[in-house]
Amino acid sequence: MITYHAGGNNCGFGAVVSDCIYQPWGNYGAEYPDPSGQCAKQLADRNTYIDKAGDGGLYQDEINTVVDLLNSPAVKNNKDFRLYILGYAHFFNLGANYCDDISFGALATLPLVGNAPKVSNRLRTDLNDGVERVNRILARVANDVGDSRVKFLDISPAFTGHRFCENNHNYKDQWYNADVWLWNFNTPADDPPADPALMDAWLDGNRFPDNSTLPNYPDGTPIGVEMQGGVVTDGSGGSTGPGPTWFQRPFHPKQGGTHAIADIIISQAIADKIPGVVGSSPPTTGSCNCDENGCSPESPACCANGTCS
């Protein structure tokens, strides 16, 4: 069994989040949806790739990747193999609320240029729409490869009530509330931090980390930024890849989200009766001989669930 979660990087989700949500490196021009601003230009560019038919578009890139995988010797003739193509969770709850007047973006080492971009309902709606269109393409790919071993799993419904900008949450919850299942610019890995003063230092001054430290913690002590799982980098990359640590984690699932995704995968694996998965039927060999009550004594294993093949 392989789980396949790909397409977001191809579509430049990271660039969109940077240019539309955080805007950390300078003047990004007019706020969305003004077409002259960097956010609108970045979204238009990404939408062109998502919607493009044929070579150089998301659909064809995904088809090529999945077909190559299915043709690999270890997979091609393995009837017990399963490929689960995972969709993406919608990032935001929609509708007019407090998020229309707040921003997720600022950086401690740079003076804020212009206005911090608001997380407006229009922006949230259009970013969610991009996720939805990617999910539809991934579902098409799972169908169009013509292999029953390939399935698309929609993870987004599991995140209902746990996205950014939920009506029952508030401003600080967007950073420090385990009930929000997506990472924002958080430090350290504690969610929420053990010391409330750290949260206040982090948010009240609208200041975010310089690579791997929080420079304005009350006692002046630099605080490391940790990735999920406790991996700490110095901002130079290392095991977590290139780029500062704070840039890599936002908009990825937190622990609650990853657990929900795991539950979806496990449920599907059990339903598909993958040999070796707890709760699945024992592996079958040959055909079943069934009587009117379901299974014959000669073939109890392959008829364990009362069905015959």
From TrEMBL:
GO biological process, one term: lipid metabolic process
SUPFAM superfamilies reported for this sequence: SGNH hydrolase
GO MF annotation terms: hydrolase activity, acting on ester bonds
Name of the protein in question: Uncharacterized protein
Species per Swiss-Prot/TrEMBL record: Xylaria bambusicola
